[in-house]
Every structure is written in C-alpha cells, then in structure tokens.
Amino acid sequence: MPKTAKRTPAVKAKRVVIAIPDLYTNFFAKKGEERLDLFRTVAHEYAIKRAMYAGSYVHVTPSFVIPDMVYVDNDKRAKAFFKVSENYAFVHTRKEYIEPCNLVFYGLDYTSKIGEPENSFDLLISQYAGLVGRACKPYLARGGLLLANDSHGDAGVAALDRDYELVGVVNQKCAESIDGDDDDTSVSETTDECKSVSHRTSVSTGVKERKYEILTNNLDEYFVPKSAKVQAQVSTDYLIALGKGVQYTKQAHFYLFKKV
Ligand SMILES: C[S@@+](CC[C@H](N)C(=O)[O-])C[C@H]1O[C@@H](n2cnc3c(N)ncnc32)[C@H](O)[C@@H]1O
Predict the structure, then answer these.
(1) Cα distance between residue 66 and residue 68, in whole Å
(2) CB-based contacts of 195: which residues, under 8 Å, 6+ apart?
(3) Which residue's alpha carbon is at the smallest distance from atom 14 of ligand 1?
(4) Which amino acid residue places its CA nearest to atom 22 of ligand 1?
(5) CA of 130 to the centre of ligand 1 (A)
(6) What is the whole-number distance in angstroms between the Cα of residue 172 and the centre of ligand 1?
(7) Which of 75, 112, 147 most suits a substitution to test ligand 1, by most atoms within 8 Å of the C-beta?
(8) Residue of the nearest CA to atom 5 in ligand 1?
(9) What is the pLDDT of residue 201?
(10) I want to staple 199 with a disulfide (CB 3.0 to 4.6 A). Which of 78, 140, 151, 182 is the partner?
(11) Exposed/middle/buried for 196, CB within 10 Å: 0-12, 13-18, 19+?
(12) What residues does 208 pair with on adjacent strands?
C-alpha cells in the first residue's frame, strides 16, 4: 500500500461570521453608524414621505423616519436579511411617524430595471455604493432630492449633471452648537470647517448618535477641485473612471441635489 502523504492542515484566516438577523445591529447600530439624525433632519426639512435607497445593504434606518421606503441591493447577505421579515421587524418599534411603515426590498443590481414607477420618489439616497444618483435618477420625481456623499464620486458626478442642482449640504454638527443637556462632546472626525462631534446616547443601542445640520449658503464654493491639474480635466467620464471622489477646496459630509 502506498504511503499516504501527511496532509498539513490549511491555516484558516480568522473569519467572524455574523448571523443574518444581527447584520443591522453589528454593522450600523453598534458602530454608531445608523446615521438616524441625518435621515431625520432631511426628512423633516423637506417633508419626505417616499424614498429609494440603492446600495443600501441592510441599512434600514431611513424607515425610522420615512414611511414609504424602497431598498435595492444585490449583496447576498442583504438578500438573505430581507427575505425574513422578522429580521427587520424592529423598524416598526423605532418608527417616528404615525403612518404604517411600508418597506420594499429588491435584491437587484440598481442599474437594472427596478419595478417602481419612474418620477415617483421624493428622495434618492446614495451612500458609499457607487453612482446611484446617475443610475436611479429616472425614479426620482422632478423637484425630488438626491442625498449623496462623495465616497465613490457620486456627488461630484451629480454636481456636473444638468439634471441636478445643488440645494444644500449636510454636515455633522459643530461642537459649539451642542445643547447644554448633552452628556458628551467627544470629537470623532474633522471637516475643513469644523470639528464634528458625537453626542446624545441612543436609548436603543447605547451608542452615541451623531447630529446633523443642513447648510444652504455659499453653495457655489463646493466642487472646486483643490488641484489645478484635476480642475483642468475633471468631467463626468473622469470621475466615473476614477471611481472615487476627488479633493475639493470645500467639502461636506453629504450633499443635497434637486432634480430639475
Ligand atoms: C459599502 S456598502 C454601503 C452600504 C450602505 N449604503 C451604507 O451606507 O452603509 C455598498 C453596498 O452597495 C451595494 N451595491 C454596490 N453596487 C451595487 C449595484 N450596482 N447594485 C446593487 N447594489 C450595489 C453593495 O452590495 C453593498 O451592499
């Protein structure tokens, strides 16, 4: 009988497997990444009732403040999460409006046809998930808003799009604007303009919530590239090829564009 070669056990990389029902808690709630006040501030200011969040993963926080939400993501864990309604039943206990909560999920590539009427959404949400503002623009109503960050260049692309007009920016609040009843003012991140802070503790998660404010002044100062070289060549195609935002002289955490 031939001698069997001794097998060396493969060294397995340590992989933490998070159960599907816990995805929201682990990725958003526990990390202080719910961004609830961001969606609350925008929803209240613009009376948002119906929104689409493409590239949402399992980030269902908008449903706490917006009654009619459509989520789109092609990640297999997101699909598994939304398959079981118990996984996101907690939105009903955290919702801040009196209407019933309507939540729909499409496990699709957001560049494909989504089964929702065009021009029917008050708000389109784009966060760290590619060029949502461009791909899902048909679903946004005229006069509706795109809330985007520039992580993947989506805000920069929208700024160059004639169908969009910059109407505001959203920043985490500066330290000096914190109310006296807050229990902590720890600096968590800095922007060009101010130090932003985490404050107030969420009752449900015990994690500090960040507060946000909408600014609408001096909007023409945004989207001016820092580098003269970039300024000379910046275009939609340039940003798409780059796949990320470029440095601008003045930046915000999030941008609000109106579809005109
Ligand atoms: C980095 S995560 C961001 C999740 C969430 N938006 C947030 O702010 O935490 C990016 C998500 O976008 C999704 N995504 C990226 N491109 C997509 C596409 N073309 N269609 C659907 N989902 C997409 C990924 O599956 C992933 O869940």
Answers:
(1) 6
(2) 174, 175, 187, 189
(3) 55
(4) 73
(5) 7
(6) 22
(7) 75
(8) 56
(9) 57
(10) 182
(11) buried
(12) 201
Distance 110 CA to ligand 1 centre (A): 9
- Would the CB of 128 count as within 6 Å of ligand 1? yes
Strand spans (E) along the chain: 50-54, 68-72, 102-106, 121-126, 140-148, 164-172, 187-190, 195-201, 208-210, 212-215, 254-259
Q: Is the pTM of this model over 0.85?
A: yes
pLDDT of residue 209: 78
Q: Does 112 sit in the ligand 1 pocket, CB within 6 Å? A: no
Q: What is the distance in A from the centroid of ligand 1 to the CA of 73? A: 6
CA 125/CA 63 separation, integer angstroms: 12
Q: 196 forms bridges with which residues in the sheet?
A: 174, 189
State in Å: Cα 103 to ligand 1 middle. Answer: 18
pLDDT tens sequence for the chain (260 residues)? 445 555 655 666 778 889 999 999 999 999 999 999 999 999 999 999 999 999 999 999 999 999 999 999 999 999 999 999 999 999 999 999 999 999 999 999 999 999 999 999 999 999 999 999 999 999 999 999 999 999 999 999 999 999 999 999 999 997 433 333 333 323 233 344 443 334 455 555 666 778 999 999 999 999 999 999 999 999 999 999 999 999 999 999 999 999 99
Please tell me the predicted confidence (pLDDT) of residue 188: 33
Residue pair 33/100 in contact by the 8 Å Cβ criterion: no
Domains defined for the chain, CATH in brackets = 21-172+214-259 (3.40.50.150)
